[in-house]
């Protein structure tokens, strides 16, 4: 009776649109950033200015995020609500999740700046040093895990089991993205350190 298909309406096209949008975003920015790193694609598009290229990518990623969030909310509206997820305690927990998720995301942006947040390393715009203070002493990827917490909080806020399935898709998508991004950016910084130590000699 209470199988997953009762809790989640997989026949809704908005559900699958949300899945597609969740998977598309990190795939898009990883392809765009690698293409920039190898061929300076976005810098060329920005008339040879790497900073403008990075700002263009930042704006695109930001807008894609807003579109995805809107699709997610609309998908949730078309899904069944579970009574156990409604009431004061779930609502309070939902608010706490969204709030702390947003604290992680916004404090990360504040600490990294626009180019640090939006893949500036791939444009050759490197941070002077690795940021280790809050929120990076809580998690190495506050943008990703903060965003995942907001997805879970929104699912709980509306009392939608489907939202937790979609949050699982977000979690998997970001975990895969991190396995691509973390070693790649680490290599970019190692390369700079090697070049700097050569210069120092
Ligand atoms: C992280 O750093 C902040 C401020 O620098 C500090 O208040 C907080 O306790 C630290 N958190 C952890 C888990 O170390």
From TrEMBL:
<feature type="transmembrane region" description="Helical">
    <location>
        <begin position="119"/>
        <end position="138"/>
    </location>
</feature>
<dbReference type="InterPro" id="IPR007318">
    <property type="entry name" value="Phopholipid_MeTrfase"/>
</dbReference>
<keyword id="KW-0949">S-adenosyl-L-methionine</keyword>
<feature type="transmembrane region" description="Helical">
    <location>
        <begin position="87"/>
        <end position="112"/>
    </location>
</feature>
<feature type="topological domain" description="Lumenal">
    <location>
        <begin position="1"/>
        <end position="12"/>
    </location>
</feature>
<keyword id="KW-0444">Lipid biosynthesis</keyword>
<dbReference type="InterPro" id="IPR024960">
    <property type="entry name" value="PEMT/MFAP"/>
</dbReference>
<comment type="pathway">
    <text>Lipid metabolism.</text>
</comment>
<comment type="similarity">
    <text>Belongs to the class VI-like SAM-binding methyltransferase superfamily. PEMT/PEM2 methyltransferase family.</text>
</comment>
<feature type="binding site">
    <location>
        <begin position="181"/>
        <end position="182"/>
    </location>
    <ligand>
        <name>S-adenosyl-L-methionine</name>
    </ligand>
</feature>
<keyword id="KW-1208">Phospholipid metabolism</keyword>
<feature type="transmembrane region" description="Helical">
    <location>
        <begin position="15"/>
        <end position="33"/>
    </location>
</feature>
<keyword id="KW-1133">Transmembrane helix</keyword>
<dbReference type="Pfam" id="PF04191">
    <property type="entry name" value="PEMT"/>
</dbReference>
<protein>
    <recommendedName>
        <fullName>Phosphatidyl-N-methylethanolamine N-methyltransferase</fullName>
        <ecNumber>2.1.1.71</ecNumber>
    </recommendedName>
</protein>
<feature type="intramembrane region" description="Helical">
    <location>
        <begin position="13"/>
        <end position="33"/>
    </location>
</feature>
<keyword id="KW-0256">Endoplasmic reticulum</keyword>
<feature type="transmembrane region" description="Helical">
    <location>
        <begin position="158"/>
        <end position="180"/>
    </location>
</feature>
<comment type="function">
    <text>Catalyzes the second two steps of the methylation pathway of phosphatidylcholine biosynthesis, the SAM-dependent methylation of phosphatidylmonomethylethanolamine (PMME) to phosphatidyldimethylethanolamine (PDME) and of PDME to phosphatidylcholine (PC).</text>
</comment>
<dbReference type="GO" id="GO:0032259">
    <property type="term" value="P:methylation"/>
</dbReference>
<feature type="topological domain" description="Cytoplasmic">
    <location>
        <begin position="180"/>
        <end position="201"/>
    </location>
</feature>
<keyword id="KW-0808">Transferase</keyword>
<dbReference type="GO" id="GO:0005789">
    <property type="term" value="C:endoplasmic reticulum membrane"/>
</dbReference>
<keyword id="KW-0496">Mitochondrion</keyword>
<keyword id="KW-0812">Transmembrane</keyword>
<keyword id="KW-0489">Methyltransferase</keyword>
<dbReference type="GO" id="GO:0031966">
    <property type="term" value="C:mitochondrial membrane"/>
</dbReference>
<keyword id="KW-0472">Membrane</keyword>
<feature type="topological domain" description="Lumenal">
    <location>
        <begin position="34"/>
        <end position="45"/>
    </location>
</feature>
<feature type="transmembrane region" description="Helical">
    <location>
        <begin position="45"/>
        <end position="67"/>
    </location>
</feature>
<comment type="pathway">
    <text>Phospholipid metabolism; phosphatidylcholine biosynthesis.</text>
</comment>
<feature type="topological domain" description="Lumenal">
    <location>
        <begin position="116"/>
        <end position="158"/>
    </location>
</feature>
<feature type="topological domain" description="Cytoplasmic">
    <location>
        <begin position="68"/>
        <end position="94"/>
    </location>
</feature>
<feature type="binding site">
    <location>
        <begin position="99"/>
        <end position="101"/>
    </location>
    <ligand>
        <name>S-adenosyl-L-methionine</name>
    </ligand>
</feature>
<dbReference type="GO" id="GO:0000773">
    <property type="term" value="F:phosphatidyl-N-methylethanolamine N-methyltransferase activity"/>
</dbReference>
<dbReference type="GO" id="GO:0006656">
    <property type="term" value="P:phosphatidylcholine biosynthetic process"/>
</dbReference>
<keyword id="KW-0594">Phospholipid biosynthesis</keyword>
<keyword id="KW-0443">Lipid metabolism</keyword>
């Amino acid at each position: 009776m209470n199988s997953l298909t009762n809790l989640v309406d997989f026949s809704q096209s908005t559900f699958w649109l949300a899945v597609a949008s969740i998977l598309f975003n990190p795939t898009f920015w990883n392809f765009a950033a690698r293409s920039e790193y190898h061929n300076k694609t976005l810098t060329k598009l920005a008339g040879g200015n790497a900073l403008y290229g990075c700002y263009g990518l930042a704006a695109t990623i930001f807008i894609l995020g807003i579109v995805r969030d809107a699709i997610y909310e609309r998908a949730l509206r078309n899904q069944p609500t579970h009574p156990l997820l409604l009431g004061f305690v779930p609502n309070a927990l939902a608010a706490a999740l969204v709030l702390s998720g947003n604290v992680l995301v916004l404090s990360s942006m504040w600490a990294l700046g626009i180019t640090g947040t939006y893949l500036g390393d791939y444009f050759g715009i490197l941070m002077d040093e690795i940021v280790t203070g809050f929120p990076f002493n809580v998690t190495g990827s506050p943008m990703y895990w903060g965003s995942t917490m907001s997805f879970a909080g929104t699912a709980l806020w509306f009392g939608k089991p489907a939202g937790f399935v979609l949050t699982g898709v977000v979690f998997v998508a970001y975990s895969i993205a991190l396995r691509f991004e973390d070693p790649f950016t680490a290599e970019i910084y190692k390369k700079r350190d090697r070049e700097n130590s050569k210069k120092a000699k």
